[in-house]
Write a structure and sequence with these properties.
Blueprint lengths: L1 E6 L3 H13 L2 E7 L3 H9 L6 E3 L2 H7 L4 E4 L3 H13 L3 E5 L6 H13 L5 E4 L6 H11 L7 E6 L3 H7 L15 H17 L4 E8 L5 E9 L4 E7 L8 E4 L4 E4 L8 E4 L5 E3 L10 H11 L5 H27 L13
The structure holds NADP nicotinamide-adenine-dinucleotide phosphate.
NADP nicotinamide-adenine-dinucleotide phosphate (NAP) binds next to helix 4.
Family: Belongs to the Gfo/Idh/MocA family.
Protein name: Oxidoreductase
GO molecular function: nucleotide binding
Length: 337
């Protein structure tokens, strides 16, 4: 059984724990929260046996877990992952794993020094069957003429922002904003399906505190461009598309891939949809579980390295997009080019 420790007690951690428990290969061992009653109430939903901590140092030093799942505000991911690696714990950290390339480089350096520790960015859709199938499908296209990818969902936290508050997800202090929160999914799609773009530019709609509420990013490739539309202050019902010569792949939603159709441009269409899990985090959990169950094998290392290489590229593209729009975070003050 893999022993899990968690940081962050919001709904996403519940969904993650439900996924790990579904595999029957994990147990919840340790819970960290800033508030003891919150940690205890959270743990009780799943088990009577988990230890609870309110001090992060003790959590990493004494916690009886091997793997930590970090689902805290974005700006805290780096320091928490760093502390975990130094304590010899494997890390599954929510997207975006790092606020900028400087943090990502530090993580890579730490992983080199602490061989045996695994580190995964939890980009859930990247591990789903539909995502992998699309990667293969796009690879087989003779001609690619670009893509239009959309992911835009009104956030309930925007109500709070409009009421005069600054929720973490709309705060530069916490490395928030539309690009970091939802745009990251589409950057994963672009980098995984088309490779690293040659040039990128981001046109955000900024809110009064300077953070991006929504925006459009253009990723230039040698022979085409990929346009990303994402946001947290409006809802979009647009489908997403990848263009071949005559054929077009249509996705209902580029980040929540539930229905995928290939139109051949000559009157026929084919349903490419693969089985979709009820819990959207199950695929990533299954992938991480198979690696963590065999941590000393070379295949496991290679697999983690491959995923990490994509995470590093996504992190760089995200930073280039963000800085193209003069969007800076508190976490960037430590940034040295
Ligand atoms: N994969 C997905 O589908 C998905 C979906 C949603 C979110 N996410 C990711 O999950 C992460 C958390 O997102 P969220 O919306 O749940 O964030 P959040 O509500 O702002 O914070 C998550 C947790 O962090 C702790 N926290 C909140 N504010 C804090 C502060 N100022 N200092 C220290 N700890 C604080 C809280 O736990 P305690 O009060 O118990 O300490 C809270 O439950 C983000 O990285 C986000 O991108 C992923």
């Amino acid at each position: 059984m893999l022993k899990l420790g968690i940081i962050g007690t919001n709904w996403i951690t519940e969904q993650f724990i439900e996924a790990v428990l579904e595999t029957k290969e994990w147990q919840l061992a340790s819970v960290y929260s800033r508030t003891l009653t919150k940690a205890e109430d959270f743990a009780q939903k799943f088990t009577n046996d988990a230890e609870c901590y309110t001090d992060l140092e003790s959590f990493f030093k004494k916690g009886k877990f091997e793997v930590v799942y970090i689902a805290s505000p974005n700006s805290l991911h780096f320091e928490q992952a760093r502390a975990a690696i130094l304590a010899g714990k494997h890390v599954i950290v929510e997207k975006p794993a790092c606020s900028n390339p400087k943090e990502m480089r530090e993580i890579i350096k730490l992983l080199r020094k602490n061989r045996g520790v695994y580190y995964f960015e939890a980009a859930r859709h990247f591990h789903e069957r539909n995502f992998k199938m699309l990667k293969q499908q796009i690879k087989e296209m003779d001609v690619i003429q670009g893509a239009e990818l959309t992911y835009m969902k009104y956030s309930s936290r925007y109500d709070s922002f409009l009421a005069g508050n600054e929720p973490n997800v709309f705060s530069p202090r916490f490395s928030g904003g539309a690009l970091q929160d939802l745009g990251v999914y589409l950057v994963y799609n672009a980098v995984s399906w088309f490779g690293v773009p040659q040039e990128v530019v981001y046109y955000p709609t900024k809110l009064h505190n300077g953070i991006d509420g929504k925006g459009t990013a253009i990723l230039k490739y040698p022979n085409y461009q990929v346009n990303l539309n994402f946001g947290k202050t409006a809802n979009s019902y647009l489908a997403s598309e990848v263009y071949g010569l005559k054929e077009t792949i249509v996705m209902d939603n580029a980040a929540e891939l539930k229905k995928i159709t290939l139109f051949d441009g000559q009157g026929s269409q084919r349903d490419l949809t693969q089985e979709v899990d009820k819990n959207p985090m199950l695929s990533e959990v299954q992938d991480f579980t198979s690696v963590l169950n065999d941590p000393t094998s070379l295949d496991s290392w290679q697999q983690m390295d491959d995923w990490l290489a994509v995470a590093v590229q996504v992190n760089r593209v995200m930073y280039d997009l963000r800085t193209s729009a003069h969007l800076y975070f508190d976490a960037d003050s430590k940034y040295i080019q």
